[in-house]
Amino acid sequence: MIIHKKKVFVLGLDSVPPELLFDRWLDQLPNIQRLIAHGRYGAMKSTIPAITCPAWMSMMTSANPGRLGIYGFRNRLRHDYEGLSFANSKSVHVDTVWNILSRLGKKVVVIGVPLTYPPQPVNGCMVTCFLTPDTKGEYTYPPGLKAEVEAISQGYILDAAEFRSDNKESILKDIYAMTEKRFRLTRHFLRSKEWDFFMVVEMGPDRIHHAFWKYFDHDHPRHMPGSPYQNAILDYYKYLDEEIGETVKLFTDDTMTLIVSDHGAKKMMGGICINEWLIQNGYLKLVRYPAGSTPFNKTIVDWDNTRVWGEGGYYGRLFMNVRGREPKGVIAPQHYEHVRNELIKKLEDLRDEKGNTINTKVFKPEEIYTACNGIPPDLLVYYGDLFWRSIGNVGNRSIWASENDTGPDDANHSQYGIFIMQNGKEPGGVRLQGVTLYDIAPTILNYLGVRVPEDMEGKVIP
Description:
Shape: globular
CATH superfamily of the largest domain: Alkaline Phosphatase, subunit A
Number of strands: 21
Structural class: alpha/beta
Number of helices: 13
Helix content: 25-40%
């Protein structure tokens, strides 16, 4: 008698939106089509903020960013003016799926999941994520696994170098090389390692969206019709589909296959210079206004006369200079809510250069999270519902910018990613509604026969 063992394989595709995968290009992706035909799929709501860090960790812990105390790639460590510190694996104090399974003696393989650097012990093996500084240091667990990774991949690539540049041919070459090596390593580990749970995250979709979105999207403000890159994203999706097809051939009917993304993507209309806006509205004062566009942390701020400052990124963060909390606090604690509400109203009323409202959304952390561990921003801002990026630089004179302050960038993030769930036995082709990324961890544990912890925020996907 053959005893089949239940396993779970998770493929993470960073930034893939349902609008492209399901609604626009599905008929050109035969392997993904087959998975959908025998499974369930749909849009999957991301975290607020809808960004790689913390979204992947929220997915794997079923804990919101407030519980994690991680509000972005960089976070405040103290109520001071010293800037932000990068999060890493040591910042995560909630159990991940692989932590839980490792303790129960189940074998895990984890490759490229954001916020796994530095590598942590697991009952199996780990290759860390694109936030790893380079491949010269330790990026695997156990450490000796590094030699095998390098040999199989013939030089492992953590991330596509300089994907925000004008050298489009080089970017394409780097993205394809990175993706090919990751899938080659994945299939090698699938064949050679013992595993109950296997997860790999590929960053290529995110990188290609940021570099090439304007070439296919006719509604993009910087669209370039007839460009040789107009099919760059579609061609890459087709390549991903081929790699997925080769990978799922290795599974039995008892392997649940999940394909997920942490958030989606959409055209980026431009940038809103948050600190310029704060200066123009009397909330922020510099000792000396710079002659040209300058990173905020390179300016000298008059903190005694500053009430609010901001940080750029795919979403905006506002920090308030509160008396008794910050070293040179200005806002009296009893006026804190008044100033916050004033900011919300002004930001939500923000109009573009033609006088049209842009549908900016502003969030108070305590209203969207069940806890606010660490030091959350005082406000989180989706400019134009994420069609606009937040730019932290000052010296631009205008609050409007056509380009990202970190290099050429065509795309911003969107609130909904994707999920596809197939285990070979269930009737398929069912498009589900209402799934969130918090549902993925409970679904994995439940399929493997593991009790779902009560503090997990998601539900088992039916």
